[in-house]
Design a protein that fits this description.
By secondary structure, this protein is an alpha+beta fold. It is about 15% helix and about 35% strand. The protein binds 2-oxoglutaric acid and fe (ii) ion (FE2).
């Protein structure tokens, strides 16, 4: 395990078969709650497409960043698959389940700027994130804006945990190596982010 500024990076936490099982488990979720292109509060589209599973999903549009119980198309989010819940319980050792599994899809050229995860009601819960598919360059900054940053490549099956003093650390994805993994038939990267949100 790698520890970068308090952020735990569990390289190879999931082996190939476990990754393939997760992709299978996510297929019906993505069918029930299709990926959409979110926009920043200023109207600018994000390059990642996203959706959620769980009682709450994270959305952003002209109304701002928030958690809500429904997909932008109006339906409730599908349940978080048991395989994903097992990962959370195994990593956190907590009985409480996450109420949101945010699913980010990075196609060719997609990225995510440096940000803090701070829309959750209780910031004492860790954020657990799983990488599936193409490699991604993950950048870690500081708990306030600015300052030096460090980067690390995340590969399929890696798990990142942001908790404790690192819960509010700035982080982002600079770029992916499109086509570096064969896990997703059409390429790209799926990132699952598990959180106690409400
Ligand atoms: O894609 C990633 O690894 C990070 C995603 C992320 O930071 C987020 O959804 O808040
Ligand atoms: Fe984040």
């Amino acid at each position: 395990m790698l520890n970068l500024r308090g952020v735990e990076i569990r390289k190879g936490a999931l082996d190939g078969p476990a990754q393939a099982r997760l992709i299978e488990a996510l297929r019906p979720v993505l069918k029930a709650a299709p990926l959409f292109t979110p926009t920043m509060p200023n109207g600018k589209p994000l390059s990642v497409r996203m959706t959620s599973a769980g009682s709450l999903g994270w959305v952003t549009d002209k109304g701002g960043y928030r958690y809500q119980p429904t997909h932008p198309k109006g339906m409730a989010w599908p349940a978080i698959p048991p395989e994903v819940l097992d990962l959370w319980h195994g990593v956190t050792g907590q009985d409480r389940a996450p109420d949101c599994c945010l699913i980010n899809y990075y196609g060719e050229g997609a990225r995510m700027g440096l940000h803090q995860d701070r829309d959750e009601a209780d910031l004492t819960w860790p954020v657990v994130s799983l990488s599936l598919g193409d490699d991604a360059l993950f950048r870690i900054g500081n708990t306030s804006r600015g300052g030096k940053t460090e980067s690390v490549w995340l590969n399929s099956g890696d798990v990142v945990v942001m908790g404790g003093p690192a819960r509010l650390i700035y982080h982002g994805i600079d770029r992916i190596r499109f086509g570096s993994s064969r896990l997703l038939p059409k390429g790209g990267r799926l990132n699952l982010t598990l959180r106690v949100a409400g």
